[in-house]
């Protein structure tokens, strides 16, 4: 009888030990998932800040947010890159447009000066 009681208590103890081990494993998995979630939230917040900084119109912001929601982070970053490229091309165009009239005026002035010397 003593042996059966000992076996029962050992079985109970081993099943309690197994349950405790499973609980510890689940707690570890929960901690990992919580960290992954925090990392995800931080990335999303950073991306939303980037959207606010990069987009110059409300329509661009809405488009970027839609892409983020429906197609994900990678697609949203690609969209933001394309917006930046368009902005840099636009600013180059404006600089060129600003420089062209100046160079045309200079050419006209040179022509005027050359004609007046004759």
What is the β-strand count? 0
Largest sheet: none
Report the principal-axis shape: rod-shaped
Radius of gyration from the alpha-carbon trace, in angstroms: 34 Å
Q: Which structural class is indicated by helix and strand composition? A: mainly alpha
Explain what you see.
The protein has helices at residues 2-54, 58-71, 73-117. With 118 residues, the chain is an all-alpha fold. It has one domain (2-92). α1 runs parallel beside α3 and α2 (58-71) packs antiparallel against α3 (73-117). The longest helix has 53 residues, at 2-54. The N and C termini lie far apart (132 Å). Mean pLDDT is 80; it is low at 105-118.
Q: How is the secondary structure organized here?
A:
Blueprint lengths: L1 H53 L3 H14 L1 H45 L1
Helix pairs in contact: 1-3, 2-3
Looking at this protein, list some descriptive labels:
disordered C terminus
Short note summarizing the structure:
With 118 residues, the protein is an all-alpha fold. It is built from 3 helices and no strands.
């Amino acid at each position: 009888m003593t042996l059966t009681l000992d076996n029962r208590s050992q079985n109970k103890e081993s099943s309690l030990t197994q349950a405790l081990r499973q609980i510890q494993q689940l707690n570890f998995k929960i901690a990992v998932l919580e960290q992954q979630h925090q990392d995800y939230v931080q990335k999303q917040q950073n991306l939303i800040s980037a959207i606010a900084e990069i987009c110059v119109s409300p329509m661009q912001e809405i488009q970027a947010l839609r892409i983020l929601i429906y197609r994900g982070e990678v697609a949203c970053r690609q969209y933001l890159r394309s917006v930046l490229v368009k902005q840099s091309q636009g600013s180059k165009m404006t600089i060129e447009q600003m420089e062209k009239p100046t160079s045309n005026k200079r050419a006209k002035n040179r022509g005027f000066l050359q004609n007046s010397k004759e």
